[in-house]
Amino acid sequence: MVNWLHSVNWSLLVTILIFLPLLATPRGDNSESCCLETLPLTDNPQNLKTDKKIIRLSATCDDLWQTNSDPCISLRKQILRYWLHFEDHLITTWYTQDSLDLNWAKTRSQNISATITQAVVFTFVPSEVPTMIDVNGKRNTSSVKLPMEIFQSFNNKTDQVTVAVTTINSGESGLFKEPNQTGTVLDNVVVSVKVKGKRITGLRECIELSYLHKQLPQNLTRQCVFWDFNKGQNGGWNSSGCHAKLHDTETVCCCDHLTFFTLLLNPSIDNITAQSLLTTTNVGCGISMVFLSITVILYFFLRFFYKKFKSDNTVKIHMNLSGSLFILNVAYLLNNGINHLDHPGLCKGLGGFTHYCLLCCFTWMAIEGFHLYLLVIKVVNTYIQYYLVKLCLIGWGFPAIVVTITGSINSYGEYTIMDMANRTTLSLSLHIHLVCISVFSKE
């Protein structure tokens, strides 16, 4: 027996020694070390040093865009702001070669007369350098149209206006990605337009970005956006100042400023699917109400046969929680049943009632936790005079106080949940309803 234990100890020791180097080895993504690198923003973009470094970081640093440590946040900001420097450098210094052709970034820098009498059009294709084309010619590719207003603003100041148009493949570069982004970038193409010497905003005649594409599925909604460097910690997509003109195989984005643009494709739910989900939700809430009713009725029935049910506070707390869940289901079904009525007073009343039911559920769940703490952890010296009465005052009274205060400042009424494109977020409400089903059906 002793020899057997001795051999086991040696086996464990050898195993630990074998795997110890593996435990000391850094993770494959090596997020912390790669996030400590810096980008030399003074590099000439033509030397491609910084560009190669960005490509390497995007390929090897898996957590660069997911980890919210201070080094990673700082590096993300450096990479994104590098592109502002990139275009500034490109249009400030006129190269003999006026274009830059990388695998994931294409740039065209062009001098245009300030006295031009028509709009200027550049093509943008993921695999090609942007090209200036005739504004009146037939366009077979995606293009960006710059109005005369941009160039007329330079009149009497300079003869030539330098414009830089850049296309970036966001898929290969790893740039321009929001945390938890649900929409996808059309063809992974981000387009940037910049004019030397002036920040272009508040245009009366919008900049038109024409995206040519195949006919898109009906469950995708199109949204014209630009990259807002001031949004969140790392920047994000914003639709302010942009609107879309939708066609079957073309989407025209009109924006009143110059920056990085793209067309986001957001998943949506069609009316048939939405109605099916709402019906499923109503049925689920109805089933939940049936079984909650059976639970309460069974409790009152058993009170006549078992003394425990008359005196046990645990069971009584369960019944109060079941009651709060029941009236919450009632509130939800009432909202669904009469939401089409145009009656402000009824809307406010239902809003307050629904809010009260939700708060009652939360307070009684908290009371369940408190009561469990007394039963399992504290155990001794847990007697509280008028215990259940005090719990009921908290469980049913506290929500009433909150709702009264909220209603007194006119917080209840008609509201619409909208996204950045001013569309009703039906999918959000459906997700909330489905969560309600999964929670309420557990009782």
From TrEMBL:
Record keyword Disulfide bond present: yes
Main location: membrane
Compartments, as annotated in UniProt: Membrane
Keywords of this entry: Disulfide bond, Membrane, Receptor, Signal, Transmembrane, Transmembrane helix
This protein's record includes keyword Disulfide bond: yes
Ranges for domain G-protein coupled receptors family 2 profile: 277-443
Membrane topology: Multi-pass membrane protein
Protein name, entry field: Adhesion G protein-coupled receptor G3 isoform B
